[in-house]
Specification:
The chain is α/β, with parallel strands linked by helices and about 400 residues long. The protein contains 14 helices and 8 strands. Helix 5 packs antiparallel against helix 8. The protein is globular and about 60 Å long. It binds S-adenosylmethionine.
């Protein structure tokens, strides 16, 4: 089953679903009422062959970073040699979680923890992890038709812990252009369903069952600790509060925030001032300083208050590495109190361009796109090579 098809582009329909969004806005924060403890050893996977599957995430997520996973694995392996093996790899902007799944499946880290502020996405991962058999059975029952697409677009749960939320997420993600869950993206194949790609062309239930079983396997083997529905800052604060036994040097946070531009069209929760997908026309972010306060909040935290080693990926925007309020600094600069009382370190920030291959919609040839990758892993772990290039302006 391929995840890249020609013609898979954002089409705009007149459908909007803000009522459904509002109704899901307070999903439970954890899979169970309390955060799951780190107790119990990490067990082998029931089916280790799943760790080598080409595609592991059941979601085809807009902005997914599957292409970065091999690079992140190399960084994590290099840092293991100097800092020790990561006890936890936390992904606070989980989305399709492709990097985390690969790290956990192939045992590059002890455990992973996923979190996302979008209740639809977080609930999907919670049910996929802890109620795998139920979700698989439910998926097989579900007809993949235009009528069901209309049903799910207008469906809103009565309870925030409803398992059907996971079905909605999976269904819409696999049947909507570009995997967009919210807003105005239409069904694959269009409303007329006359295209060569029908609404079910990405809904291979057998392939999805394998991927869902992999998520369940990660959870029962204790490799996937928990799934939270939270803002990224709460996730990082709560990891420290719930798991004080973790060593800061052996926790890596991988942050892949929504991009400055267009993210309001892609995600239910974005860094757009409107707070996520909004049906208003012409909504756009025009600059870091005028509209990017959430990006500034993240940058300030990562420069001054982050207790854990971090890896950050972003769209390649020059201001990110030239603006002092973003990531111009080459070293973390915690305030005296954070340094003395909370032990926040002055880790170096290493910056690289990453060249990712991707397929332009409808094009036969693959193109190369530059992403920014910044990290506080020790600089000796971050090589310069054909995949990781130096920034000219440093
Ligand atoms: C670029 S996507 C992540 C893609 C992911 N790395 C992947 O490979 O699929 C950004 C994600 O951040 C989530 N998000 C937006 N605002 C957030 C916030 N304040 N806290 C946590 N997650 C947020 C969105 O719901 C979206 O899933």
């Amino acid at each position: 089953m391929t995840d890249v098809l020609p013609g898979d582009d954002l089409l705009v329909s007149s459908q909007t679903n803000s009522a459904a969004l509002a109704a899901t806005s307070s999903a439970p924060a954890h899979i169970v009422a309390q955060p799951r403890a780190l107790a119990g050893s990490v067990a082998p996977l029931v089916d280790p062959s799943m760790a080598t599957m080409r595609y592991q995430s059941p979601l085809r997520y807009p902005g997914a970073k599957a292409g970065l996973a091999p690079i992140i694995i190399d960084l994590v392996e290099a840092s293991t040699r100097s800092l020790g093996r990561p006890q936890l790899f936390v992904e606070p902007f989980a989305g399709g979680a492709s990097a985390s799944l690969r790290l956990a499946g192939a045992s590059h880290v002890d455990r992973i923890l996923l979190a996302d502020a979008d209740p639809l996405v977080a609930r999907f991962w919670q049910v996929a992890a802890a109620d795998t058999d139920w979700l698989i059975d439910r998926m097989y029952e579900e007809p993949v038709t235009l009528a069901r697409w209309d049903y799910w677009r207008s469906w809103a749960p009565r309870r925030t812990d409803d398992r059907e939320i996971a079905v909605k997420c999976l269904f819409l993600n696999r049947t909507t252009f570009s995997g967009i869950l919210h807003g105005r993206a239409g069904p694959i194949g269009g409303r007329a369903q006359t295209s060569e790609y029908a609404i079910d062309c990405r809904f291979n239930k057998d392939a999805l069952e394998r991927r869902l079983r992999f998520i369940g396997d990660l959870y029962t083997s204790n490799r996937l600790v928990d799934v939270w529905c939270k803002d990224w800052e709460d996730t990082l604060a709560d990891v420290a509060e719930y798991y004080p036994q973790l060593l800061p040097n052996r926790v890596i946070a991988y942050l892949d925030p929504p991009y400055l531009r267009k993210s309001h069209k892609l995600y239910g929760k974005s860094f757009d001032p409107a707070g996520g997908y909004t049906p208003k026309t012409g909504a756009t972010t025009s600059g870091w300083m005028s509209n990017g306060w959430q990006h500034l909040r993240l940058a300030e935290y990562l420069r001054r208050r982050a207790a854990y080693r971090w890896i950050l990926s972003y769209d390649n925007e020059p201001e990110l590495t030239s603006c002092p309020a973003l990531y111009a600094a080459n070293r973390m600069t915690p305030g005296r109190e954070d340094a003395d009382i909370c032990g926040i370190r002055r880790w170096r920030i290493t910056k690289r361009y990453v060249h990712l291959r991707y397929t332009v919609s409808g094009a036969a040839v693959r193109s190369i796109k530059a992403e920014l990758l910044l990290t506080t892993l020790p600089p000796s772990c971050v090589p310069v090579n054909d995949r990781l290039r130096e920034l000219e302006n440093l």
